[in-house]
Design goal:
This protein is of the alpha/beta class. It folds into four domains: about 5-150, P-loop containing nucleotide triphosphate hydrolases (Rossmann fold, 3-Layer(aba) Sandwich); about 155-225, Helicase, Ruva Protein, domain 3 (Orthogonal Bundle), CATH 1.10.8; about 240-405, 3-Layer(aba) Sandwich (Rossmann fold), CATH 3.40.50; about 410-475, Helicase, Ruva Protein, domain 3. Helix content is about 45%, strand content about 15%. The protein has 21 helices and 14 strands. The chain has helices spanning about 5-15, 25-35, 65-75, 105-120, 155-170, 175-185, 190-205, 215-225, 245-260, 260-270, 285-295, 315-330, 340-345, 355-370, 390-395, 410-420, 430-440, 445-460, 470-475, 480-485, 485-495, and strands at about 20-25, 40-45, 50-55, 60, 90-95, 125-135, 145-150, 230-235, 275-280, 300-305, 335-340, 375-380, 400-405, 500-505. A seven-stranded mixed β-sheet has the order 4-3-2-5-6-1-7, sandwiched between helices. Helix 5 packs across helix 6. The chain is elongated, with a radius of gyration of 29 Å. The protein starts with a helix and ends in an 11-residue tail after the last strand. The chain binds adenosine-5'-diphosphate. Adenosine-5'-diphosphate (ADP) binds next to helix 11, helix 16 and helix 18. Adenosine-5'-diphosphate (ADP) binds near residues 242 and 284.
Length: about 525
C-alpha cells in the first residue's frame, strides 16, 4: 500500500500510541486527516481560543479550561454534558494550540492519566489524544507517551497535481514544461503554501509562467526570515573572485551544470549532488567558495548556524534542527552553508565527549544528509577537523572533501591580481613576482589586508599609483598567519595528512611549504 500521511497516522492509532503530536499550522488539513482515519470514533475537540467545540462544524459548545476539559475526558461520567455527553470509549481527543499549557503540572498529570488509561484499555479506550499545534513542546514527563507526527511534504507528483488543480480552478492554460519547472521550485512547500503562492502569481497578471519562480523564491525567503533559524546570505562574490583552488573550482563547475539544468538532469537520471566539505587554513577562501558556489549554481545561499538552534527545553534543540532542515528543503534548490562546522560538532564521541544534545543533533544531521533526496546542496566549511567525529567525514556523506592549504606561488599571484584589480590599482609595472616571493606563508586574507593598507596609505599620502616598494613595505609590517597561528596551522596539516581528502589547489612543484 502506498505510504500516505493518512496511512502513517492510522498506523500510529492502530499501534495504540496514546498521544500524537502534530506540528502543523494548517489545522483544516489536519482535521481532514483525523476525520478520515477516525473510522467511526467520536471526536471531541478543545480549542485554546474557544474552549470545547464541535469538531465537525466548529461551533462553541462550552467555555471551559483545558484542565476542565481533560478532567471530563477521564471522568467518563454524565456530568460531562458540555461535550454533549460523557466521553465514551473510542473517542479521539483533539487539542488545538495548547502548547503553552504543556508546562502546567496539572495538564501534564491529566494527559498522563489519559495516556495510561488508553494504553491499559486497548479495547475501550479514550484516545488517542491529538495535540495539534504550530509549535512543539514536549514535557519530559510525557516524553514516553508522545509520538511526533510530521505531515510529510508533498512529493513531486502531488505538487504537479496541486498545480493542475489550481489552473483548472482558475481556468487558465499552462504548458506542461512550465508546470514541471514550477513543481521543482515548489518542492519543500506544503499544499497550502503552494496554493497561496499560485494565487498571488495569478492575481499579479492573470496567468502563470516560468517567471513566477522568482515569486516562489521571494515567498520562500519570507518563510525563512520569519523562522529566524536560517539566514539568507546576500553576497556579490563570484567564482572569478577566488584566486587559485583550481581543482575545487573545476569540480564545482561540473556540478553547476546539473544545478543550472536541474529539471533536465533529474529527468535524465542524474543523482543530485549532496554537497562538499571544505577544510583548511583560515582566511584562504572557504567562505568565499561557499558564496561563489551559490552564484555559480544560480541558487540562493542559506546559512545554518547550529549554535543558534540550541534551546533550553528538552527536545527543543532537536525540534529546531528538524525545522531548520525542513526549511532548507522548503527553499530548495539552494546552497546550505554550514560555517565552522567543527565548532558545533567537535568532541562528539571523542574522549572529552560532546554533550547529549549536540550528539543527538549530530545524529539527526547525519541521518538527514544520508536520506536527503532534496536539492539542498551543502557546503560545510571548517578550519580544524581533528575533533570532528569520523562518521562525518566518511565517504558517501559528502560528495567530496577538499583541503584548502595556504596559497602557493601561482595562487598568491592570482590573489594579488584579483584584489588589485578589484580596487582598480593593477598596473603592469608592478613586480608581482617579487611580492609573491615575499608573501610565502600568507593567506588570502593577509594579502587582501596588505593591498587595502597600501591603498589607504597611498590615498592619505596623495599618491595615485602603487609601486612594488609601497606594497613591500606594508608586507614587512604585516604578520602572516603562519607567524600568528603557527601551531594551529601545523595541527590542521597534521590532521589532514592521514586523511583521504582532495587538495583544492593544483600542485605548485616549485614551492616547498614553510
Ligand atoms: P575562510 O577560509 O576562513 O572562510 P574567507 O573565504 O572568509 O576565509 O576569506 C577572507 C577574505 O580573504 C575573503 O573575503 C577574500 O577577500 C580574501 N581571500 C581569501 N582567500 C582568497 C582567495 N583564494 N582568493 C581571493 N581572495 C581570498
Amino acid at each position: 500500500m502506498k505510504q500516505t500521511p493518512e496511512n502513517l497516522l492510522a498506523s500510529y492509532v492502530d499501534a495504540l500510541r496514546p498521544i500524537i503530536y502534530i506540528n502543523h499550522f494548517d489545522f483544516e488539513a489536519v482535521d481532514d486527516m483525523i476525520e478520515k482515519i477516525s473510522d467511526g470514533a467520536r471526536i471531541v475537540e478543545f480549542n485554546n481560543a474557544l474552549g470545547c467545540i464541535n469538531f465537525k462544524n466548529k461551533s462553541p459548545m462550552s467555555e471551559c479550561t483545558l484542565i476542565e476539559f481533560l478532567k471530563h475526558c477521564i471522568e467518563d461520567d454524565a456530568r460531562a454534558d458540555f461535550i454533549d455527553s460523557a466521553v465514551k470509549p473510542n473517542t479521539f481527543i483533539v487539542l488545538k494550540d495548547v502548547h503553552d499549557s504543556l508546562n502546567d503540572k496539572q495538564v501534564i498529570a491529566l494527559l498522563r492519566r489519559i495516556a495510561e488509561f488508553s494504553i491499559n484499555n486497548p479495547v475501550f479506550r479514550t484516545g488517542p489524544v491529538f495535540i495539534v499545534a504550530s509549535k512543539t513542546v514536549i514535557p519530559v514527563e510525557l516524553e514516553n507517551y508522545i509520538t511526533i507526527f510530521d505531515i510529510p511534504l508533498p512529493g513531486n507528483e502531488e505538487v504537479v497535481e496541486a498545480i493542475y488543480k489550481f489552473i483548472e480552478d482558475v481556468n487558465i492554460s499552462v504548458s506542461d514544461e512550465v508546470i514541471d519547472d514550477l513543481a521543482l521550485s515548489f518542492k519543500g512547500l506544503n499544499k497550502f503554501q503552494i496554493r497561496q503562492i499560485l494565487t498571488l502569481a495569478y492575481q499579479d497578471g492573470g496567468y502563470i509562467d516560468a517567471g513566477d519562480k522568482q515569486l516562489i523564491l521571494q515567498e520562500k525567503e519570507q518563510f525563512i526570515k520569519k523562522s529566524g533559524m536560517l539566514e539568507i546570505v546576500n553576497f556579490k562574490e563570484t567564482i572569478q573572485d577566488i584566486g587559485g583552488l583550481e581543482t575545487l573550482k573545476e569540480w564545482l563547475d561540473k556540478k553547476a551544470k546539473i544545478f543550472q539544468n536541474l529539471d533536465k538532469a533529474i529527468k535524465f537520471g542524474v543523482d543530485i549532488p549532496k554537497g562538499i566539505m571544505i577544510v583548511g587554513m583560515p582566511g584562504c577562501g572557504k567562505s568565499l567558495t561557499a558564496k561563489a558556489t551559490a552564484d555559480l549554481f544560480q541558487l540562493p545561499l542559506v546559512r545554518l548556524d547550529i549554535g543558534r538552534l540550541l534551546g533550553k527545553y528538552v527536545g527543543e534543540s532537536e525540534e529546531n534542527m528538524r525545522k531548520a532542515l525542513k526549511l532548507s528543503e522548503a527553499i530548495s534548490p539552494c546552497v546550505l552553508w554550514i560555517d565552522e562546522i567543527e565548532k558545533a560538532f567537535a568532541g562528539i564521541g571523542g574522549a572529552g565527549g560532546g554533550n547529549d544534545v549536540t550528539t543527538r543533533l549530530f545524529g539527526q544531521f547525519l541521518t538527514w544528509m544520508q536520506e536527503k533526496e532534496s536539492t539542498v546542496f551543502i557546503v560545510a566549511t571548517a578550519n580544524d577537523i581533528s575533533n570532528l567525529p569520523g562518521e562525518f567525514l566518511r565517504k558517501g556523506r559528502f560528495d567530496e572533501l577538499f583541503f584548502v592549504d595556504l596559497p602557493n606561488r601561482e595562487e598568491r599571484r592570482k590573489i594579488f591580481e584579483i584584489h588589485l584589480k578589484k580596487r582598480r590599482k593593477w598596473n603592469k609595472d608592478l613586480d608581482i613576482f617579487s611580492l609573491v616571493e615575499k608573501t610565502q606563508g600568507y593567506n588570502g586574507a593577509d594579502i587582501e589586508a596588505v593591498i587595502k593598507e597600501t591603498i589607504e596609505l597611498a590615498f592619505i599620502e596623495e599618491r595615485n599609483i602603487l609601486t612594488t616598494d609601497d606594497i613591500k613595505a606594508v608586507i614587512e609590517d604585516t604578520k602572516s598567519i603562519s607567524e600568528t597561528l603557527k601551531t594551529k596551522i601545523q595541527k590542521i596539516r597534521d590532521t589532514v595528512a592521514n586523511m583521504d581528502i582532495k587538495t583544492a589547489s593544483k600542485p605548485d612543484p616549485t614551492e616547498t611549504k614553510k
